[in-house]
alpha-L-fucosidase (Lunatimonas lonarensis), 691 residues
Amino acid sequence: MNRLQFFLMVLFSALLYSCGGGGQPAPDPVYPIPSDRQLAWQELEYYGFVHFNMNTFTNMEWGTGAEDPALFNPTEFDAGQWAKVVKEAGMKGIIITAKHHDGFCLWPTATTAHSITASPYKNGKGDIIREIADACRAEGLKFGVYLSPWDRNNEHYGTEKYIDILREQLRELLTNYGEIFEVWFDGANGGTGYYGGANEERRVDKRNYYDWENTFKLVRELQPNAVIFGDAGPDVRWVGNEHGFAYETTWSNLMRDSVYGGMPEYSEMYSMGQENGTHWVPAEADVSIRPGWYYHEYEDHKVRSLPQLLDIYYNSIGRNASLLLNFPVDKRGLIHENDVAQLRKLTSKIKEDFAFNLVGKQVLISASVDRGRAYSGSKAIDQKKDTYWSTPDGTVSGSLTLEFKEEIAFNRFLVQEYIALGQRVKAFLLEVQVDGDWQEIATGTTVGYKRILRLPTVKTKAVRFTVLDAKASPTISNLALYEAPKLLLEPELRREKSGLVTLLAADEEVAIHYTLDGSEPSPVSTRYTDPFLVETPTEVRAITVDPVAGLASEMVSYSLDIAKSNWKVVGGGEQALNAIDESDRTNYVASSGQLTVDMGANHTLSGFTYMPVQNRYMSGVIKTYVYSVSEDGVTWRQIAEGEFGNIANSPILQRVGFPPVKARYFRLAARETLDGNPASFAEVGVITAKK
Ligand code: FUL
């Protein structure tokens, strides 16, 4: 080879290399594909929602619009606290309910008098939107606005004039508060007729009334980088439920022209997206950290548990959706301490779960097929989001195999598609090699931006990921494996009427150990295997243990009293048994206002317990009571009466003590209920005197 030939050869190889993959071009996009603003939004993954507005002060979820602006008066409002809490949790922004269905505006709008300007907050000089926007900016968070199209206060709602007003409100919000990352249009719309709002009689044609096309144009003009959320998109769609769960099969493609905001059949038919959807409209999962979207003191003890929050996280972000987690900011204007505490637990567990990507320990990655060097298997693990493994045109399946020098243990599998070229994967398989044989450990359907599987811990030296079917050549930009530590939470105890006790651990792979004699449990205490009977007063103490890691949870102690196996309700029929079935979820409503129980034998009582109904409506919750006992069911003695203090705001288990008294029968009667409805009971129990 002469010098020229050599030079040409070097030039040629360099050219080949720069074209990527031996000249192989990138796969053609599979339409629909995301816009640039959607791509940027997709990477946020996780951001906070705040419901804070008039309803916070009226204890409502949907206000009527007739509320007096004077009621809006937070005492310690601090958007800086919200921003810090959200930032610390790893969330990327905050969306605020600038105006909810009741029409009250959190900023000094020129469009209506029903706003913060008419409230005592900062003597009518306040601007909550400004304070939140500034706080977000100070923490490096994005800021978004929720603006309810449905307005129960505005006198023009239902007419064309209102559409101009709504647009003007939007103009104010999108002009005066800096960069907005998301504009949230709620699908809940007038015409439901349930709540008798100011303009309820003005039913609107949800599909056409709002002239969305022109409203969207305005958003584009004022905030070209903002995504628009609505049931039907256009940029981001509703996941179809308020539990924060996306579907196992979640396409970002949507038949967008077939849906509209507030469409009744949306959740069932469209919210999971469609393989052949015409537009790119990814799902966003919205869910509140408490049962309600707005703050209610009576939900202070109902903040979601860590296992519930983890389910939400994995079932949204892990299923090709983003997560919009709501905080019902309280009357002070702060995210409540209980919510902060639960969020911190979630944050640290997620950090632990994804602390170390085991793929880094791999020695070899091989692809069964690729479309050239620029699309080799290694591109799926190079930690670069713009490179990906892909196959030749027309090849819609193929595998990536990771081999490890030493055995690894993992229980989380994460995979991502290079979505800039469209969502492609329709079916996949995950296998591990055990003793030389491949064993299937999971199968799945869609991947999309991100898919995470939680799996039982498996040990192996080789892992194989196979795309079984795709719309076109798959484009896999990331594969990761993690070993999440076991969830070592205190065991939960459930008891049946018979006295049968079940202990439950949040993580199936941990052991439960317990004692029944009041002593402290340790990993050598009795190991729980099957439900056991507890018929007499007993202290059950338990821990969960991860034997491999040598770790244990905190201890939990349950004080159980006599079993209710022989208990009967005197009168009240079948439904009355709900009050003594050891379940807080089933209720009994007593038209007589009282509950009489025959325990079947005499016991020495030194107190009683009452669990009020645990649903949002709280109908018939007892406020003041009379408690009586009897040995024969004929002669009764009243032994306690009083008030369940603060039960309206804190409907938790009530315990009342009294001097020991012998009784076979007891009667709990309501003197008054909170709402005047017939007394209701989730559960009643007794405290028997210590022998
Ligand atoms: C729903 C609304 O009706 C709720 O009040 C809440 O704002 C939720 C996020 O969206 O459609």
